[in-house]
Amino acid sequence: MTEHRTNLIYTAIFLVLITVSSRATNNMVTTTVPLLGKYVLHFSNTVVGLLSTVIFAFTFLSTSYINPSLNATTRKRVFIISNGFIVLSLLLYYYSSPMTVWILSAVAGLAFGLVMPNLITAASLANDKKSAERLLALYSTSLSLSLIIGPALETFLLTKVGYREIFLWFIPLALIAFILSARLKFPDVKREDKGIAILRNKGFISSVLSITTYNIPFAAFTTFLAILAKERFNIPDFEAYSVFLPFFTISFLTRLSMTIKPFSNLKVPLVISIGITIIGLLGILYAPSYTAFLAVIALLGIPHGSIFPMSTIMISRATSIAERNAVNSYFLAYNNILFLAVPAIVGFISTFIGLTLTMTLLVIPVFITALMFFSKYWNDEILKG
C-alpha cells in the first residue's frame, strides 16, 4: 500500500469520526433544546420558536462574519476552544434555567458556527482533485450517517431518561470531536481571502443556486414533515416521526455511492436530482395513502443525498485554498438563512391553503432556481470536472 493511499485512508477515518460526532451533537442540541424549553422549562410555543431562532441566528453570525474574518492559525485555536465549549455546554444545559438557557443557546450557536465550516474546508484539502472530491463526498456521507445515529440514539435514550439527561448522554460523543479537533487540517497559506468580495466567486454563486433547489423544500420538511404526515393520515406521533427514517436512509445510501464512485461530470446527476425533487413535491400532493407518501419521501432522499456534496464539489473546483474558508463559511451562512426563513414562510402560507398544497407549491422556487443555475453554468467547466 502506497504512502499516499495510507494517508488517504487515515484522513477518511479521521473525517468520519469528527464529522459524525460533531454533527450528531449539533443535531441533538438544535432539536432537543426546543423540547427542553417546551416540556421542562414550560415555555409557550412562541417562546420555544424564539429560543430555536437564537441558536440559528448566532450560528449565522459566526459562519457569516466571525469565521471568515479569522486567519488559519487563530481559527484553529478557536475551533478547538469551540469544541471544548460544546462539551461543557451539554453539562450546562442539564443545569439550565429559564434565564440561563438563552445565554447558553446563543454561545452554543456561535460555537457550532465556528466548527462546521472548518470541517468542509478540511475535507477539501487533499493533495489532488480526485481525492478532494472523494473526501467531500465522504464528509457529506458522514453528515447523513450522523442524522441516523444521533436520532436513533436519542429515541432509545428517551425511553429511559428525560430531556435534561439527554444532554449528559451525548457528552462522550462531543468529547470525541474535542479530542480530535487539535489534529484537524487547516489551510497552509500565508494569507486567506476575506470580505464580501468573495461573494462574487463562481464557486459560491453556483453552490448557492444548486443547494437552493433542494434546501428550500428540505428546510420546510425539517419543521413540518412529521406534522403533515400526522394531520393528513391521522397516524400516531411515533409513526409520524418515522417518516424521516426512509428519507435519511436513502440520503445516506446516495452519498455513500457518491463516495465509492464520485461523479466527474455533474450535469446529468444535477438534472436528475432536481427532476426528482420536482416529481417528489408533486407526489406529496397526490399520494393516496401513507405508504405512498413514505415512498415519495424516500424518493426525495436521493436529491437530499446528492445535491449537497455536488455543491461542495463545485466550491472546491472553483476556489483556491486561500478562498475556500470564506466561501464555505458564506455557503453555510446562506443555508442558515434558508432554515430561518423558509419554515416561517411555509407556516404562514399554510394557514391559508394548508400544508399539503404549500409543500407542493415549493416546486415554483425550485424550478426558477434550477433555470437560473443551468442557464448560467450548463457549459461551464465547474460542471464538467
UniProtKB/TrEMBL annotation:
Gene3D superfamilies: MFS general substrate transporter like domains. GO terms for molecular function: transmembrane transporter activity. Keywords: Membrane, Transmembrane, Transmembrane helix. SUPFAM superfamilies: MFS general substrate transporter (SSF103473). The chain crosses the membrane at residues 47-66, 78-95, 101-123, 135-154, 166-184, 204-228, 240-256, 268-287, 293-315, 327-346, 352-374. The keyword Cytoplasm does not apply. It holds the Pfam family MFS_1. This is MFS transporter. It comes from Stygiolobus caldivivus.
